[in-house]
């Protein structure tokens, strides 16, 4: 793995119970010795980059363990061509990511971050009499990407009495739709035009990259809020900046951007109608522990030639 500076202490501890750990730095310093020994790679934050050179130098490599759900940092066909398996942990992060999606939605609707800044500012003398927040009950939430995370967001939104539309590659079963009161929009345009909140919970693929661009933003209501807990590249960021600056949409709340973090002088960070969090969708103690349990299980299974739990299979 990339090295202790990039990895939580508890991850190292849990991994050390089962495996001998070699950091990327140690590997690079002594390639000849370690290249014959490494059987698994643990990725954190997209590092180390798994490329031809690395794969070619590790003849004993059996599995790549990637915490979280997203796989956009991996060249899956390349990895498969080396006979190496990939395991991730989509279940461990789905609940906290759905929670964060709702947290961002509510924070944006009630302008929590702006309110907090005002409440703690040394310049504040009086609290505002009118604080123009928005209630989410009765509002329409459009969820783009109705996988496990999207569906959990729908369950939460139902509890907040929101109306739910969704757009997804595949339609969910009728019972699943009925359980959360979700209405399928085959056309993304329909969802965008009718939603008060648009939630991006899709994975990043060549098909979804830039899914929300200038045209899509213009289809949204001027009062609408865009929330993104998927990947930054789902949105054309320059178009989003322009839409937020010119009132094409009301606000955005983003857990993901590109790059991460944004350069400190990025125009998105200068806007008032934005909330940005540091990619913390899966960042809870519970998820961290579950991720490690899942990955240790997957790595051990791969090393012993057993079926690998949460294995990523090429479609
Ligand atoms: O699981 C993932 O891929 C995440 O990015 C969680 O935020």
Automatic annotation (TrEMBL):
Annotated GO MF terms: glyoxylate reductase (NADPH) activity; hydroxypyruvate reductase [NAD(P)H] activity; NAD binding
Any one annotated GO CC term: cytosol
Gene3D superfamilies according to UniProt: NAD(P)-binding Rossmann-like Domain
Superkingdom to which the source organism belongs: Eukaryota
Domain D-isomer specific 2-hydroxyacid dehydrogenase catalytic: 7-312
A Pfam family assignment: 2-Hacid_dh
Limits of the D-isomer specific 2-hydroxyacid dehydrogenase NAD-binding domain: 102-281
UniProtKB keywords: Oxidoreductase
Similarity comment: family membership: Belongs to the D-isomer specific 2-hydroxyacid dehydrogenase family.
Name assigned to this protein: Glyoxylate reductase/hydroxypyruvate reductase
Taxonomy of the source species: Eukaryota, Metazoa, Chordata, Craniata, Vertebrata
């Amino acid at each position: 793995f990339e090295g202790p500076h990039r990895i939580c202490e508890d991850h190292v501890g849990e991994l050390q119970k089962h495996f001998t750990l070699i950091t990327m730095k140690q590997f690079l310093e002594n390639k000849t010795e370690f290249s014959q020994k490494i059987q698994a790679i643990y990725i954190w934050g997209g590092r180390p980059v798994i490329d031809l050179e690395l794969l070619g130098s590790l003849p004993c490599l059996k599995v790549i363990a990637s915490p979280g759900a997203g796989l956009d940092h991996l060249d899956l066909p390349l990895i498969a061509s080396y006979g190496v398996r990939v395991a991730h942990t989509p279940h461990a992060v789905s609940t906290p990511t759905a929670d964060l999606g709702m947290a961002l939605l509510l924070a944006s609707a009630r302008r929590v971050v702006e309110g907090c800044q005002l409440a703690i500012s040394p310049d504040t003398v009086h609290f505002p009499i009118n604080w123009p927040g928005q209630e989410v009950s009765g509002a329409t939430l459009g969820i783009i990407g109705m996988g496990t995370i999207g569906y959990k967001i729908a369950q939460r939104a139902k509890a907040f009495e929101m109306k739910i539309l969704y757009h997804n590659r595949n339609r969910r079963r009728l019972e699943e739709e009925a359980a959360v009161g979700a209405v399928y929009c085959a056309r993304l345009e329909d969802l965008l035009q009718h939603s008060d909140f648009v939630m991006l919970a899709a994975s990043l693929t060549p098909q979804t990259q830039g899914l929300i661009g200038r045209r899509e933003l213009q289809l949204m209501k001027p009062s609408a809020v865009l929330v993104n807990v998927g990947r930054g590249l789902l949105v054309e960021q320059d178009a989003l900046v322009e839409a937020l600056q010119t009132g094409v949409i009301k606000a955005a709340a983003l857990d993901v951007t590109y790059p991460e973090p944004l350069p400190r002088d990025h125009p998105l960070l200068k806007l008032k109608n934005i909330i940005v969090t540091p990619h913390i969708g899966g960042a809870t103690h519970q998820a961290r522990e579950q991720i490690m349990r899942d990955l240790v299980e997957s790595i051990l299974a791969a090393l012993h030639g057993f079926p690998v739990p949460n294995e990523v299979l090429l479609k």
